[in-house]
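Narrative summary of target 7.
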Amino acid sequence: VFAIDGHPERPRGAGSYRLEGRAADARVLFSYAFEPADVDHAPTVRQFLFAIPASPDLEAALAEVTVRGPMGTASLGRAPAATAPGAPSISVRVAPPQRVAGGVTVSCADPAARGILVLDANSGAVRAMSSGSAVRVAVAAGTRLSVLCTDGIRTARESVIAP
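Modeled conformation, tokenized:
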């Protein structure tokens, strides 16, 4: 889950799947029915991507996202380090980009990071994404990047310039 600036793209219509966001006290913060899209080259795989409208209050309250459907249930909560009593939300700490052949390696310095998304800071285009805390990006030196790190639910953002 990444919180980004963009245009909402909610699930449309009905479907056999349900996307839910819940608070730590189990309150439902959002709930949408949907049908995943077929993948033409992988008949047993179905995919989905949504941009749910969010407010600072929703982001602060969101503790878990769950998808339920005919194939089962999958849930994603905040990283264990981020859910400890008194633990702060994920922080905006991005390790300095390191130049490698053909681009840079960008990483989240926060140990709670469970994913990284790298956007072109000028256009907003996705340059790279990983379910880990680091990713290699093919960019020229001097390129402005927006790096988003997630603890699974909450997002921190920092701007960097590729060396």
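Confidence is low (pLDDT under 50) at residues 83-89.
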